[in-house]
Amino acid sequence: xxxxxxxxxxxxxxxxxxxxxxxxxxxxxxxxxxxxxxxxxxxxxxxxxxxxxxxxxxxxxxxxxxxxxxxxxxxxxxxxxxxxxxxxxxxxxxxxxxxxxxxxxxxxxxxxxxxxxxxxxxxxxxxxxxxxxxxxxxxxxxxxxxxxxxxxxxxxxxxxxxxxxxxxxxxxxxxxxxxxxxxxxxxxxxxxxxxxxxxxxxxxxxxxxxxxxxxxxxxxxxxxxxxxxxxxxxxxxxxxxxxxxxxxxxxxxxxxxxxxxxxxxxxxxxxxxxxxxxxxxxxxxxxxxxxxxxxxxxxxxxxxxxxxxxxxxxxxxxxxxxxxxxxxxxxxxxxxxxxxxxxxxxxxxxxxxxxxxxxxxxxxxxxxxxxxxxxxxxxxxxxxxxxxxxxxxxxxxxxx
Length: 400
Fold this sequence. Notes:
The chain has helices spanning 32-44, 72-80, 129-137, 151-159, 186-192, 214-227, 239-242, 244-252, 257-266, 276-283, 300-307, 353-365, 367-384, 387-399, and strands spanning 20-25, 50-55, 92-96, 109-113, 144-148, 167-169, 200-205, 231-236, 267-270, 288-291, 312-315, 329-332, 334-341, 344-351. By secondary structure, it is an alpha/beta fold.
């Protein structure tokens, strides 16, 4: 999978034309920001870009670095990238960590990767209160830009007063050597979970937090089960980072006693941290991927599921509109609502439970759509949404 040239991560002398980059961020962690950072670093190693990294402390002291998230060659390539010294500078410093830091770096330009799920910069998203207050008064200097993966998220920066050329929209990608259909392995993977023969599986991946719409998914699934008792819901959380199991149980407790019984009998939960290869295998168990989210910055699992040939059901009107098509995705009707946070407008989507149930039902009944989606999704991702595509866009917008 890797083609890593010698010296690819070494900054060149100043008189050389090759552009140079310093990437500050997280590695060896299954958090979404770290996942984005690491796949981008691997793609940068395949480009004529000189770069070094700075490992930023994790957001929580309880978080621990994990080995084995990537296959051994890729992990070794990540570990071999040279680390920048504190006084070093480059053409661009790219920050990929949380909370956000929009203060100037030593480099000519500073780029801050950030997702605004609610189209708002909140106080707890910024590393320093004084910096947050400065952002409330206006955007940072012109040599500081935001990198964000969707038009939905970009709208939050525009609302905050950022100029259009200070907001770089760079969609995420998928490593299609890892995430792809595995029809020959599907039955074996399902039997390990285990999933019974003939069960129709809905899959959803995420923190199990409220913005993911887990409560809607549980209600919708309980209703679908009444008509189709051979269905199963497989949920993948992240207990190591978010205590997803507790969040899921909280959502289950909002159901009626009857619906709780249905869901608990027909649900399989996975909370462990999995390697990317193991995640790719987990997608294979699904007959449909469901994400009735309320607020997202991008929603990478939707794209990964599509790459694996899984038909998609997701919220209409949010960031997934940027990258899903009707060929492989059906979108849940939603209404955009606005609330006040810190005296500013925050946006979210309210998906229709009734339409979610309709689409989940149609996914079971419409085998022709599922067959077409299984071909259209991987083709769409391979063409336009690989990590090489993403990094080419990043380089063009940051370094050209």
